[in-house]
Each structure stands twice: as structure tokens, then as C-alpha cells.
Amino acid sequence: MPDGFTLVGDIGGTNARFALWRSGHLNAVQVLACADYPRPELAVRDYLERQGIPLAAVDSVCLACAGPVSAADFRFTNNHWTINRAAFCAELGLRHLLLVNDFSTMAWAASRLGPEHLVLVREGVAQADRARLIIGPGTGLGVGGLLPLGDGRWTVLPCEGGHVDLPVTSERDFQLWLRLRERYGHVSAERVLCGNGLQALYELSCGLEGVEPRARNAAEVGALALAGDAQADAALEHFFLWLARVAGNAALTLGALGGVYVTGGIVPRFLERFRASGFADAFAARGKTSGAYLAEVPVWVMTAEHPGLFGAGVALQQALAPAA
């Protein structure tokens, strides 16, 4: 890691968040609208100008990008930007450019976040030498793994675990699943465990009960649930139970005895309701063998304000660190 600072970014379809990474901490976080810049290089230049930092002072950048990252050029799915690695480095005078999937940075963040940014929602004993699972319902359902390499180093295992089949374990699950299949065809976990999924779950639950829906989107479902609306609260509870089952299945597959980290845009908004839900019990309620395997797996909710930026800093710091 060079002296001073590096630049990190977290770029989605609408906004680009930038920060300076120095000594393991984020500084000068700023959000810029992607639509205001024809190219990402211009957004980086503008950010540095706003901070009063000359372009020559930055030689290493890590960008968390929404979409699958490969060695080729990166084309954003939900905005007009493209990153040509060679051209990007040449224009900005960079020696190091690291592009990582935006959800992968959540896993990098989980490797370093302190207790002040984690809320324990299921007690257990984390095994330090075992994998960790990161799962996050938001616009979609992100799933990733974090594997220890020793000496404080980690590697992130990206995957598409949000698209596994939605588990059905109760009569209520089955009735909802039938209606989800009518609406979507294939019923993946992400069909329920995302913002649109929460709204769909609420609407279908209302249909089963013969109740007229009152909420028009996921935010309204959450607001109604917290205000005591029985139908909305039941839908939110079922959302948390399905998240527990999907997370438990993923933990079994990965062998995530190092713990589970829940992130994304939904659960932290309803933290106290989540802690009071049946998540902790449902996570391991799956039979004699697998239940015992998961019995001591702890689960935390990540509450850091900018975990994507923080994870980008951790990823770049490890990438630039000299090999042991």
C-alpha cells in the first residue's frame, strides 16, 4: 500500500459514491449523479477537484461496480457508462485499477468491520478459520462468500445465490409459492427477497386473506407494518422467515461456520422488528443433522453507513499489500 491515500468508488445505476481511503478509514465521502457526466473519468476528475486534490496525487483506484466483473471492459447495466481499463488508467495517470462487483465489496467489508458497525441478531460462536456468508436483500438479493487465507488475508467468492429456488417448508409457503409461480413462472429466492418481492408477498398475502391491499410499494408495506397493520406485519415476518431459510441453506452449502452477515437496503431499516422476528430460530430449523450443524452459527446485521466504499478500500488495500 503506498503512503497517503487511494481513491475508492461505489457506482450504481443512478449514483457514484467516491471517498478517499487512508489508514483503513474512509474520508471525504461524496455522492455524484452518474447522469451528470458523460464518462466515469470525468466524475473522478470532478470529485478530486471538489476535494482540492491534484490528479497526480492519486495512482490507485478501486471501483465497486454494479454487475459481473471480468478482465474485459466493464459496461454498466443501468447507466450509460463504460470503463475501458487501459483508457481509464491512461487518462487518470493510474498505476493500479481494481474493479470488483458491488456486492463483493460487502464481503470485503465484513472481513474488517468492527463491533460498532455490527448488530448481533443470532448468538453463536464464529470459527475463525471457516468461511463467512454475506447475504443482502435490496434491489435484488446479493449472496457471496468470504474465505480466510491466513495471516489476516481473505478472498471473496462471488456467486449468484440469489437465483436459487425459493424453499417451501410450510402450507403457507406453498400457497404463496403457487401464486408467485402464476405471476413469475420460475420462483427464485430473489423473487421474494428484494424490495419488489416484499411488495409482491404483501399483495399475495392480502389475496389469500381476502383483504384489499393498502400499500403500493415496499416502503409503504414497511411503514404499515411498523404502524401495527396486521397484514403488512405478517408479510414482513414471512419475508424474514424466508430470508432465514435461504441464508441457512447457503450457509450449509458454503460451510459458513465463521458466521453470517446480513446487509442490503431492507433489513437495516427494520432492525428492531428483524431482531424480534422468527429469523434466528428458522435459520437452523431444518432437521437433526443440518440443524445441529447450524446451531452455533452467529448472524450479524451490518449497519455501516457506506459498506460498499469501505469494502472497496479493504479490497484495494489487500491487493496492494506486499505478498507475505
What can you see in these coordinates?
The chain has 12 helices and 13 strands. It is an alpha/beta fold and 324 residues long. It folds into 2 domains: 6-102 and 306-320, 2-Layer Sandwich (Nucleotidyltransferase, domain 5); 114-303, 3-Layer(aba) Sandwich (Hexokinase, domain 1). The strands form 3 sheets. It has a 6-stranded mixed sheet with strand order 8-13-12-9-10-11, with helices on both faces. Strands 3-2-1-4-7 form a 5-stranded mixed sheet, sandwiched between helices. A two-stranded antiparallel sheet has the order 5-6. Helix 4 (171-184) packs across helix 6 (195-209) and helix 6 packs across helix 8 (230-254). The longest helix has 25 residues, at 230-254.
